[in-house]
């Protein structure tokens, strides 16, 4: 995966937010697929951090710090800083009743709350960062929920490269999820489509993040809110 690569990605930082409903250290099917993407990035020098928002106190709401709205604690400002420090953000979610998880919805809302802030160029604070989506489940909804994640990210200022989502779903109805042990090893690991889309997504995230960073970000003409 790292061979014949002419680019140096060692100055890039990636943050993976796994919006599973399972607190650490419980096994997460979404994490199983995330790890495939993370492996590619780390093999190519990208500094990667991944966390599960469900492990933190993240009240719902559209204020920057919900502890100022009566909640005892809000860990989101710390996670938000990790987002801002990264070049690449990948949001992963399981599927429940065909929908993204409640944790994923909460994360998107908390990201959205900061979209009114501007960078030094008076652009959206997320300009220059790229975003991707990973979705897993044993029911339909991979592309539907991927489209929600990617639309939300681009709407608030993230760049979305081509083919920047991946996922896996099993047959309709109850059954094994990604990474569960099957007759021939972990379920889904040999799925050609998922492996291909994971590889393409990961490389396109790195390529675009590198291109934008090396060029100094998005040009300011026409997109400064003050203008």
- First-last Cα distance: 44 Å
Number of helices: 5
Q: Indicate the mean pLDDT.
A: 94
Rg: 18 Å
Query: How many β strands by DSSP?
Result: 8
The largest pleated sheet is described as: 6 strands, mixed
Low-confidence stretches: none
Helix share bin = 25-40%
Order of SSEs: EHEHEEHEHEEEH
Which structural category fits the helices and strands? alpha/beta
Range of strand content: 15-25%
Report the principal-axis shape: globular
Tell me what the structure shows.
It is a single chain. The chain is of the alpha/beta class and 227 residues long. Helices cover 33% and strands 17% of the residues. Strands 1, 2, 3, 4, 5 and 6 form a six-stranded mixed β-sheet that branches. Helix 1 crosses helix 5. Strand 1, helix 1 and strand 2 form a beta-alpha-beta unit. It is globular.
Please give the structural blueprint:
Blueprint: E1 13-18, H1 29-43, E2 47-51, H2 76-85, E3 88-96, E4 99-100, H3 102-113, E5 130-137, H4 142-155, E6 165-169, E7 181-182, E8 185-186, H5 192-214
Parallel strand pairs: 1-2, 1-3, 3-5, 5-6
Antiparallel strand pairs: 3-4, 7-8
């Amino acid at each position: 995966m790292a061979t014949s690569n002419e680019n140096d990605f060692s100055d890039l930082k990636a943050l993976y937010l796994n919006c599973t409903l399972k607190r650490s250290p419980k096994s997460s099917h979404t994490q199983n697929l995330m790890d495939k993407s993370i492996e590619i990035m780390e093999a190519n020098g990208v500094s990667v951090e991944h966390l599960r928002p469900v492990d933190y106190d993240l009240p719902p709401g559209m204020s920057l710090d919900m502890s100022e709205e009566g909640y005892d604690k809000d860990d989101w400002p710390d996670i938000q800083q990790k987002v801002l420090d990264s070049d690449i953000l990948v949001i992963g979610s399981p599927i429940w009743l065909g929908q993204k998880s409640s944790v994923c919805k909460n994360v998107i809302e908390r990201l959205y709350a900061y979209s009114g802030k501007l960078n030094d160029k008076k652009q959206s604070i997320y300009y220059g960062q790229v975003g991707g989506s990973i979705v897993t489940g044993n029911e339909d909804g991979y592309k539907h929920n991927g489209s929600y994640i990617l639309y939300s990210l681009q709407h608030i200022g993230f760049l979305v490269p081509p083919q920047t989502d991946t996922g896996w779903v099993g047959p309709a109805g109850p059954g094994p999820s990604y990474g569960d042990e099957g007759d021939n090893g972990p379920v889904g690991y040999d799925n050609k489509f998922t492996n291909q889309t994971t590889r393409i997504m990961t490389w396109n995230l790195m390529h675009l993040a590198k291109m934008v960073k090396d060029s100094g970000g998005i040009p300011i003409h026409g997109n400064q809110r003050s203008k």
